[in-house]
Amino acid sequence: VDVAAVWGTDGVPAAPGRDLTGILTAARDGALGALVVGGLEPRDLPDPELARAALAAAGFVLQLEVRRSEVSAHADVVLPVAPPVEKAGTFVSWEGRVRPFGQVLVSRALSDRQVLDALAEEMGVALGLRELKATHAELGELAGWEGQRAGSPATAPAPVPAAGPGQAVLATWKPQLDAGRLQDGEPHLAGTAHRPVVRLSAATAAALGVRDGAAVTVAGPRGSITLPLAVTTMPDGVAWLPENSAGSSVRAIGAGAGAVVTLLSEEDR
């Protein structure tokens, strides 16, 4: 696929651009003067404190959102965009499967795609994303690879984390219902979420000297989370926490899946 030809340019940059951490670091350090933020909560990012520092330091913050959020406090301008039911678009599953959807409710609200296209036009750049059909057509041209296939990766596996006495390897993911913003205004739905707990195996709980239902603290580099224990059939030396549930924001303690964390009983705290 000739990306430059699809985009109608003479070429594309050879150097890689900034990733998320690079963008936030540059904004925090003054190398970037403005940020465009859409559909983002700092607590969902790998380093929430870096995100908050970047938002506070940026000279100008433009937010695209459907409701007030933590980012709104830093935004110089908030442009309301259409939620999924008021626009047509596409979801891509974790398997890479394209799942298009149509507009359900009649609305004059602009989608985030249309807003970004209009902003680019004001800055002298034609993205060509004003019409959904044109966007899908461009994605279709970019889909598929016609060149030589890359070989199998030869990257060595990451070392297995080693947890010492009073420690565990953290496992975490988001349950179907957690503290996500899409449940705003739906207390009955949110009320059906599983109660947040910390899960340990029977042997790990015994080594810590705690029983089922006791308060257990999981501590990381930046903080700790205390939840009731649910003894679970699982590998020893592993502690599981819900990633973003009430009372359990894993990113806020500076940890993630695979990190080594400290376990504390109520007596140890």
Automatic annotation (TrEMBL):
One of its GO terms (cellular component) is membrane. Residues 191-247 form the Molybdopterin dinucleotide-binding domain. SUPFAM superfamilies: ADC-like, Formate dehydrogenase/DMSO reductase, domains 1-3. Residues 147-166 are annotated as: Disordered. It holds the Pfam family Molydop_binding. It comes from the Bacteria. GO terms for molecular function: molybdopterin cofactor binding; NADH dehydrogenase activity. One of its GO terms (biological process) is respiratory electron transport chain. This is Molybdopterin-dependent oxidoreductase. It comes from Georgenia thermotolerans.
